[in-house]
Amino acid sequence: MSKRTLQVAGEIQQIVGHLLQFEVKDPRVAFCTVVNVDISTDLQMAHIHVSVMGDAEARKATMGALDRARGFIRRELARELRHLRTAPDIRFMLDESLDHSMRINELLRDMKSQQ
Questions:
Q1: SS3 labels along the chain
Q2: Which pLDDT belongs to residue 22?
Q3: What digits encode the pLDDT tens for the residues 50-81?
Q4: Nearest to 39 by CA among 84, 96, 101
Q5: For the chain: N or C, fewer Cβ within 10 A?
Q6: Is pLDDT above 80 for 5?
């Protein structure tokens, strides 16, 4: 990945994180954190990986709310990323790596307690 691509991905992560925390009014987005942004080399597509607290139903509701807010978020990205010709199309992806890590830690604790 080029330095420019990494820079734009970092900018998108910062901007979207701010938007989710302060600008998006949907309460279902309150427990959502931007974990990572993968952007295509032509800067036309950005996959925004988010971590969502809550059960499966809450995650599903949050992902739906993010999908509905996609137009607003893309418009704000276009406004903030003036150095780009066009704002990238965005897709939100649920990041479950934190859940996976917690499950591994739980299994390790269980193994240790059984010894």
A1: CCHHHHHHHHHHHHHHHHHHHHHCCCHHHCCEEEEEEEECCCCCEEEEEEEECCCHHHHHHHHHHHHHCHHHHHHHHHHHCCCCCCCCEEEEEECCHHHHHHHHHHHHHHHHHHC
A2: 94
A3: 999 888 899 999 999 999 999 999 999 999 99
A4: 84
A5: C
A6: yes
The domain locations on the chain are 3-114
Cut 0.90: pTM above it: no
Q: Are 64 and 50 in contact (CB under 8 A)?
A: no
Structure tokens at 8: 């734009």
| pLDDT for res 3 | 93
What type of residue sits at position 60? K
Cα–Cα distances (Å) from 43 to 55, 67, 71, 81, 83, in that order, read 33, 20, 17, 11, 12
Closest CA to 18 of 76, 67, 61: 76
The CATH number of 3-114, from 3.40.50.11500, 3.40.1360.10, 3.20.20.80, 3.30.300.20, is: 3.30.300.20
